[in-house]
């Protein structure tokens, strides 16, 4: 590969390349579409999958098809008025509420952390090194993922040499690239040491156990207790967390995903008095719209706000009742 090709490849994440390749394969192989395509062909493709694919998935397929035509030097049919009109009609007819992962509540985080602490002790007593490694890794991943509000791709891209720990204070994590860093400028994420549920202590325990000095932080572990050189895959975190939650006795573990940590932290921060600007800066959201997708206002909070407003507007003295007739 030439140096130019390396730079071009580095400008786009592996996840994006895989996603686009899958979309093109779906269009050509599964739907039997022809490339280059026409506006009519793209419109028919959207119509055929409107009832089975989410609107965001359709948009991702359009982005992949757009990229293919541009890269190959063909006119881009996805930008036509016909395609835009069909997509608008699909949104109107198949307008359903977006399914979102359940936020990881602090009580559930405490429950899982307690279970992991007990499981680590039992594994140590029985000499099960594979279980000790797995539970110690999962504890670090869970606590750091929650308190930093990391996405799954950010967690698996963390590298040992890019993390610095200051005892008693906290840790800094440098990421050279992430989904929110469109210009690939890199960013330092800071996370404090805590009196309980501490992500710094959990990270130190994982590093001390494995002796890792460089490379990915969170790695695969086989049944014999061998720690792999490569990192966990971002897509594997959903099944990892659901299995962990099921083992810990969490109710309805299938409702959680890797986004649950990010959403859970956002809800905790707002309930703890953080304003939206503080939260956006800490987590890395660029606009309020993105941030609000992760925030939930509970029914109890909503009720409290209404009652507070009613109290503020209540008259100081009750008006006299009108006289009874007769």
Explain this structure:
By secondary structure, the chain is mainly α. It folds into two domains: 3-93, Tyrosine recombinase, N-terminal domain (DNA polymerase, domain 1); 106-292, hpI Integrase, Chain A (Orthogonal Bundle). Helices cover 54% and strands 7% of the residues. Strands 1-2-3 form a three-stranded antiparallel β-sheet, with helices on one face. A two-stranded antiparallel sheet has the order 4-5. Helix 7 crosses helix 11 (259-271). The chain is globular, with a radius of gyration of 25 Å. The model has no long low-confidence stretch (mean pLDDT 86).
Number of domains: 2
Shape, principal axes of CA atoms? globular
Low-confidence region ranges? none
Total count of strands: 5
Per DSSP, the total helix count is 14
Largest sheet: 3 strands, antiparallel
CATH architecture of the largest domain: Orthogonal Bundle
CATH class of the largest domain: Mainly Alpha
Write the CATH homologous superfamily of the largest domain: Intergrase catalytic core
Radius of gyration: 25 Å
Instruction: Report the end-to-end length measured between terminal Cα atoms.
Output: 100 Å
**CATH topology of the largest domain, anyone?**
hpI Integrase, Chain A
Strand order of the largest sheet: 1-2-3
